[in-house]
Amino acid sequence: MLFIETEPHAPAGRFAEWIPDATIVRPFAGDPLPDRVTEPLIVFGTELDRGGDEAMPWLPQVRALLAQAVADSILTLAIGLGAHQLALATGGTIKAPKTERTVFGNVLVVRTPDGETDPLVSQMPADWSSVGAGWAELEAKPKGAVQVVRPQSKSKASRPQIFRAGTSAWGVTFHPEATIPDFLTWGTVFAPDASESSVSLRTTVINAFYPTLAKYGQQLAEAFAALADNGPRLTSPAPEANTEVESAAEITVALDTLAAELLAPEAALDRMRALAVIEFLCDPEWPRVTCTTTGDTTVAQWDNGGGDSFAVVGTGAETLLRAFDHESATSPAEVGAVWPGLLDGLPAALAPWSESPEFDDEPGEPFITLALWSTDGTWQHGTPRLHDGQAPTVTDWMLGPIRSASTPRDLADDLNRYYDLDLTARHLTPILGGRPLTEQIARKINPDADWDEVRAAAEKAGYPIA
Fold first, then answer.
1. What is the pLDDT of residues 44-78, one digit of tens each?
2. I want to staple 300 with a disulfide (CB 3.0 to 4.6 A). Which of 170, 196, 272, 437 is the partner?
3. How far apart are CA 271 and CA 426, in angstroms?
């Protein structure tokens, strides 16, 4: 087996221990790369932007080897920066995050339906309780690949996944190979000006989650090595992507079910106004929810900073709910346009909000993977159709804040996870209930809040002030 370490900060780590017979090539140290790959291959690297090809002039040759390995069906595992190079080598892209925030901790992942029969990840648990540390990293957008592992829940911290390119090459966007010193080194690179207390906390967190990380990292390494024991190629081809699709009737049922689970349109707008105030109190610089009310028009948005968002727009009698999941197969970036039928029947009064600079929409390519609307106080939807034999995905995972079943406790738990706070339902109930905002209510959520700024944010959102 051949290991390629693309940079000194990203060694093979524990993989060198778990797969001890591999040959390690370090092009940054002057080791020549082979002209072709004829044995199982693992490519390592971090997620950091180190200047790309200019700083690492051996990367084009690494991509050429990855492309050749995919074409020849050579068993390949590409980790971190390696996964990015695999995506590029097979015609994909790399997308930069909107914001850059470092977060170390457990990252939960699950197998996708395609992962259930994947030769590699089907050997892993269906639900990995911990897989590593993550950050708002560059994001691999492989072309024509099959996602076999996805995040269990989506957050600003990380976009961990495993995708399969071709029949026997896998891209892993997290770091199952890393050692504790590796994580600590990456922490200093991400946050070189971190305080001594921050570094101490980071070290404590990493030491706490590392044993679980190592357990699953070893399982992944050994599963790949077991495949490689039978030769450089799979003895049987990897299964094709799951092409079973839902009927149009099933899609309609799924959307009807979603509509029934959401707050009524006006209540959803009230919830978003309240959340805009609450999230501003939690983090006035980076709130996920923002809201602007001008006259009869309210535009409220939820954005996790990682490319996923939803918005509720009220224009008097009409309301539009639009969502965008950047990883969804229904994304206009994948389809080339809004999914067929998704906006069928959209009222003309709401059409301008389906393609608007307010949401950074591009002409002819609005960022929409899900849409519902209302003209009579109930949610309606279009009639999405099959596209190239595929059914659209109902990308509703981010709509928890406006689901009727969401309680103040649920919302407090979400805020605590996201902002690392210690709120209870009692802190949120006055605002969620629409009680006019006072400085006393605001300071129960954030004792250090600037009341003038909070009042201005509430006024902007259209939330009542005492």
1. 988 555 557 888 899 999 999 999 999 999 999 99
2. 272
3. 16
Q: Single out the residue of 426, 452, 157, 449 nearest to residue 279, CA to CA.
A: 449
Tell me, what amino acid is at 408? P
Distance between CA atoms of 359 and 304, rounded to whole angstroms? 14
CA distance linking residue 110 with residue 379, whole number of Å: 31
User: pTM higher than 0.85, yes or no?
Assistant: no
Asked whether the beta carbons of 44 and 4 are under 8 A apart, the reply is: yes
Cβ distance 465 to 455 under 8 Å? yes
Tokens of 238: 């990897």
Q: Is 55 exposed, middle or buried (0-12, 13-18, 19+ CB in 10 A)?
A: exposed
Q: In 3-state terms, what secondary structure has residue 303? A: strand
Residue 323 CA, chain-centre distance (Å), reads 14
Distance CA 464, CA 360 (A): 29
Could you identify the residue written with the tokens 């209510």? Answer: 441
Do 165 and 144 form a contact (C-beta atoms < 8 A)?
Answer: yes
Closest CA to 278 of 155, 146, 112, 401: 401
Residue 88 tokens read as 């590029």
Alpha helix stretches (DSSP H) within 336-377: none
- Please tell me the distance from the alpha carbon of residue 288 to that of residue 104, in angstroms, as a whole number: 20
Burial class (CB in 10 A: 0-12, 13-18, 19+), 294: exposed
Residue 131 to residue 146: CA distance in whole angstroms: 20
Q: How far apart are the first and last CA of the chain?
A: 69
Q: How far apart are CA 441 and CA 435, in angstroms?
A: 9
Using CB atoms within 10 A of its CB, is residue 405 exposed (0-12), middle (13-18) or buried (19+)? exposed
For the chain, state the CA radius of gyration: 24
What's phi and psi for 289, nearest 5 deg? -110, 130
Distance CA 73, CA 91 (A): 16
Q: With contact defined as beta carbons under 8 Å apart, do 114 and 147 qualify?
A: yes
The residue-averaged pLDDT of 131-142 equals: 55
CB-side neighbour CA atoms (13 Å) of 185: 12
Position 248 scores a pLDDT of 58
Rounded Cα gap, residues 224 and 221, in angstroms: 5
